[in-house]
Amino acid sequence: MNTPAHLIFGIAAFGKPDRPATLWAATLGALAPDLSLYLMGAVSLYLLRIPPNVVFGELYYSDAWQTVFAIDNSAILWGGLLAWALWRRHAVLTAFAGAGLLHIALDFPLHHDDGRAHFWPLTNWIFESPVSYWDARRHAGIVGPIEGAASLILGLWAGWRIRHWGWRAALAILLFLQLGITSIWFRMLF
After folding, report:
1. DSSP string covering 86-124, please?
2. Is the pTM of this model over 0.85?
3. Which of 16, 38, 125, 157, CA to CA, is 20 to 30 A from 44?
4. For position 104, what pLDDT does the model report?
């Protein structure tokens, strides 16, 4: 899934309007599994001036990058953190870990040849889904609009629940970004 959708889903699922810290935690948890890609990609592209085809065609699939992705996308680690947070009844950590685990659960069926080792450290196996959220050859023209519609519904629902204008503005920005991405998939379909 696209990162704005992950943030919307995480906020909607784990943010509690009466506990602002859980909104921040859900947002950060939903972002965390993608953060390493953004950081390593930005450093490679903009500081080291490595061409995009090398960054996304070679470095992305390198053992070093895949090791980082295996750690921050491990359902085992995120699930353990969520279990501990639930056991300790820690609402903020539950929101963080829950949103991170939701991110991973939603990514798992939507990556074909660019998936992550979601069961690290038990195994480095990577599921190759027949469906992709971005690859038109793997049904992205169908997945994209579904992702956009779900994001719209969850974003509006979260905005209705969350009364703070700042959070509503943040959700509106995320919806704008996600629906912009979705419009690309609609153009591919029709």
Report:
1. HHHT-HHHHHHHHHHHHHHHHHGGG-SSS---TTTTT--
2. yes
3. 125
4. 98
